[in-house]
Each structure stands twice: as structure tokens, then as C-alpha cells.
Amino acid sequence: MSSRSCPDWPVLMEIAPDLQFKHYTVAEAKLPSDALMLLQDVTLNAVAICCDLERHVFYAEHTEPSVAEALRKTHWYDLAEWSTTGPGTAA
After folding, report:
1. % of the chain exceeding 90 in pLDDT
2. How far is CA 68 from the centre of its chain?
3. What are the b/e assignments for 35-70, b being 16+ CB within 10 Å?
4. Model confidence over 53-90: pLDDT tens digits?
5. Fewest Cβ atoms closer than 10 Å to its Cβ: which of 41, 43, 50, 62?
6. CA 12, CA 58: separation in Å to the nearest integer?
7. How deeply is 82 buried, as exposed, middle or buried, from its count of CB atoms within 10 A (0-12, 13-18, 19+)?
8. What angle do CA 50, 84, 52 make, to 5 degrees?
9. Taking a C-beta distance cutoff of 8 angstroms, is the pair 38, 69 a contact?
10. Residue 1's pLDDT is what?
11. DSSP category for residue 41
12. Is 60 exceeded by the pLDDT of residue 2?
């Protein structure tokens, strides 16, 4: 486990064992431009996101609310959506 790993990893492993959630700044995560355009008055190096970067799934409880809202308008999944109606339902 890396130092970036989400401290809620035991719970997250029960919900989505195939995903690995880590904490990043928005700048580090290199989010899609359509999400970044929706973030106003946000310092990208100071705002946090908890996500699996490979599968484009974020954990809203550990993600800045404005970032979570912007990501919901893109191809990214909120963990709740991913695990109930999205690709994670088969897991």
C-alpha cells in the first residue's frame, strides 16, 4: 500500500475489490478538460480527489464536492454509480 492509498481502503475493497483508490491533487490527476472547465475559483494543486485513475472512478466522500460535481458531468463514475448501475455491477 502506498502513502497515497485511501485510508478507507478496507471498506472500498468490499465495495470494489478491482479498484485501487488513491489521493491526488486535481492537477496530479490530469482530469478531462470538460471537468476542468467547470471548476472555477479552484487552485488545482490544493484540491483533492480520491480515485482510481485507470478506471475513471472517484470516491465522492474524499473528493472536493465541486470536483465530484464536475466529474459527474463527464465519462467518470462516482463509486456509488459504478458499483450499482455502472460497470462495477458485474463484479
Report:
1. 79
2. 7
3. bbebbeeeeeeebebbbbbebbbbbbebbbeebbeb
4. 999 999 999 999 999 999 999 999 999 999 887 776 76
5. 41
6. 11
7. buried
8. 25
9. yes
10. 39
11. S
12. no
Interior CA angle at 3 toward 60 and 69, to 5°?
15
Distance of CA 18 to the CA centre of its chain: 14
Find the radius of gyration of the CA atoms of the chain. Answer: 12
Q: What is the pLDDT of residue 42?
A: 84
Residue 24's SS3 state is strand
CA 32 – CA 39 distance, rounded (Å):
11
